[in-house]
Specification:
The protein is built from eight helices and five strands. By secondary structure, the chain is mainly α. Helix 1 crosses helix 4 and helix 2 runs antiparallel to helix 3.
């Protein structure tokens, strides 16, 4: 009978000087999250009724595991504490009870309650683990760092901005008569005025940038200054809702 093959050559019998290291024959124990996990495993493995635990059988199996774990130096103190509790429950069930003492609670009741609660938590953990998890079942979309440094465009629809401008112009036409005057107006000066008005404020309504009684020419220059500020990314023109109020706010770079 062939017992092994080495480089394709059949070995018919084991060598007489074959050495097998002791650790190769060690028993590999199942890993448990704690003593309750071990008890639940023993109950399910041997088809024990969790509501009517046979303490003698469960204690024997538990202590067998403890003995093997001691040999491998893989025993935590909590396992020894549970072993003492099982022996105490077993002893209380074996000791006779005097007739004059009223019926006391089943010594296994507290252990059963803890096992049932642990089983619920374990099942819930398994259900959560079955859900898709980021990094394990799927990857989150990544954004290149250089994209984050790109300035954001003003979050406003051009048509909404045009309608807001028409509304301002219509209002000033109704208030002030048309006058033809020669004025020297500087867009840069009005840009500075807008930035000064925005300084220290979260945002200002679009219409508040146009001072009443200043005339249509000032309104036009103010509007052009606002567009220039938006183009240079010094301010943002935003609108929270569709057809909602338009706001102007200074960017962080300012």
């Amino acid at each position: 009978m062939i017992v092994a093959k080495i480089h394709g050559e059949a070995i018919l019998e084991l060598p007489q000087d074959l050495y097998i290291p002791p650790e190769a024959l060690e028993v590999v124990l199942d890993t448990f999250e704690g003593p309750l996990d071990l008890l639940l495993y023993l109950i399910r493995k041997h088809n024990l009724d969790i509501l009517d635990i046979r303490m003698a059988e469960l204690t024997r199996q538990y202590l067998d595991y403890i003995d093997v774990a001691k040999q491998r130096h893989e025993l935590a103190a909590e396992y020894l504490l549970m072993a003492a509790l099982l022996i105490e429950i077993k002893s209380r069930m074996l000791l006779p009870k005097p007739a004059e003492i009223e019926a006391e609670e089943d010594p296994r009741a507290e252990l059963v309650r803890r096992l049932l609660e642990y089983e619920k938590i374990k099942q819930a953990a398994l259900m959560l683990d079955a859900l898709d998890q980021a990094g394990r079942d799927f990857l989150l979309p990544g954004i290149p760092r250089d994209w984050l440094d790109m300035p954001e465009l003003p979050g406003i629809d051009p048509e909404d901005l045009r309608q807001a401008w028409i509304s301002v112009v219509s209002r000033v036409k109704m208030i002030n008569p048309h006058k033809v005057e020669l004025e020297e107006l500087s867009i840069r000066e009005h840009m500075a005025r807008i930035l000064k008005k925005l300084q220290g404020l979260d945002a200002v309504e679009f219409v508040e940038l146009f001072e009443a009684g200043t005339g249509l020419a000032i309104f036009i220059v103010t509007f052009l200054a606002l567009l220039e500020l938006a183009r240079e990314n010094l301010v943002s023109i935003v609108q929270a809702d569709v057809f909602g109020t338009i706001y102007v706010k200074a960017n962080n770079e300012f």
